[in-house]
Amino acid sequence: MTHRQQRLTSISLLLLRLGAASLLFFGHGLPKLVNATERAGRFADPIGLGPELGFALVVFSEVVCAALVALGFLARLATIPILIFFFVAGMIHHAADPWAKRELPILFFTAFLPILLQGPGRYSIDGWIRSRRAGSDSRTGPDEAAPSTRTA
Predict the structure, then answer these.
(1) For residues 56, 119, 20 and 3, what is the CA-based torsion angle, rounded to 10 degrees?
(2) CA 112 to CA 152: how far, in whole Å?
(3) What is the pTM of this model?
(4) Contacting residues for 122 by C-beta, under 8 A, at least 6 apart
(5) Predicted confidence (pLDDT) per residue in 75-106, tens digit
């Protein structure tokens, strides 16, 4: 992969992370957190954890994990609860519902899956840490070795 392709991939991952995580955080997580006392006891319980625990896990996913993904800090790890939540929402909780109810969780699942598979990219805290550990300069991507350690 050329340097230009690496840069475009990292920019694309940055835009995906910021877009998906911000939509999740501000559109879903923050409103749940603000209204937690009214919503926790009557939250859906599709897998039998209880409404309060299910609500807490969803808020954790939509607030804490979304913020971590946006920052690109522990991003791959932070996508796992998000993906589990959206899988449960789209495939279990809304399984019998029409497509319009299932579409949003499946769309969010689809947006976060590449972040798990590819990582957060160079323009992230994880990328910065990785480049510092590798002793590379700012031109080296987070998943590539520093130029002095590359083999032919």
Answers:
(1) 160
(2) 34
(3) 0.83
(4) 6, 7, 10, 131, 141, 142
(5) 999 999 999 999 999 999 999 999 999 999 99
Place of tokens 């971590």: 68
90 CB burial (10 A radius; 0-12, 13-18, 19+): buried
Where would I find the H helices in the chain? Answer: 3-24, 30-34, 36-39, 51-59, 66-71, 75-88, 99-118, 125-134
- Amino acid code (one letter) for 46: P
Contact between 144 and 124 under an 8 Å Cβ cutoff? The reply is no
Q: DSSP secondary structure string, 48-89?
A: SS-HHHHHHHHHIIIIIIHHHHHHTSSHHHHHHHHHHHHHHI
Q: What pLDDT digit, counting tens, does each position of 5-32 carry?
A: 999 999 999 999 999 999 999 999 999 9
CA angle 75, 56, 72 (to 5 degrees): 10
